[in-house]
Amino acid sequence: MHEHFVQFRVEGKAIYGMMHLPEGKGKVPAVAMCHGFTGNRIEAHRLFVKTARFLAANKIAALRFDFRGSGESEGDFEQVTVSSEITDALAALEFLRKQPEVDTERIGLIGLSLGGCVATCTAARDRKVRALVLWAAVADLKGLFVQRMQPEVRDLLEKQGWLDFGGWKVSKAFYEDAAKIEPLREALRYDGAVLIVHGANDPVVPVDHAHRYHTTFQCTKKLHIVPEADHTFARLDWENEVMHVTLDWLRTHLAT
Fold it and tell me: Spelled out in words, what is the top-level CATH class assigned to the domain 2-140+183-253?
């Protein structure tokens, strides 16, 4: 297998990524990977790197990319919204389909955390994503980002137009946009095959989000709860379980 840096542009900004391709000739299935909020194309404990290489070793191409304003891609985090990330993910799918090694009929999406919400909305809008994999995905943006906000934090956001989130400048536009996007409503429009993976002890996105997705999707679906696991499956056996269940799902649903 081989990997190389790639870039594509969205609204004038360069998005940087890494393309992982299996060995051999012929067209292969491919997935794009959507990282989490304040994450990047490597992700916690190199989860995206390991997964992309694992998939490529098993004859599935993978594109890891940084959303605009994240990782090494152009743009400022202050400009990031969930909608801008959906736009980037749609562009990533288009980029993937243009690669000569990729079978355009066998495309999948993987999303972690907020990237899972982005992947759901993207798959619902793209209509040609055959397989969707959600890892610790956010199902309720309003509940997670907006309603939990303390009154004094809300006042500060109103006054200065942004919040300092551990060194990330999160804009008022991000929160306004998040309040409008309903991933569960979008999930109803997806008619491919979805695998929902979540850690039972996720302290960031409660496991209840996974159950809500599983109840809502009307397509081929499977719920896989990893006992005791945290938000990013940060233990070798959890990580291994997630990678294998993901490969099995993609193999089944991106088969010729």
Answer: alpha beta
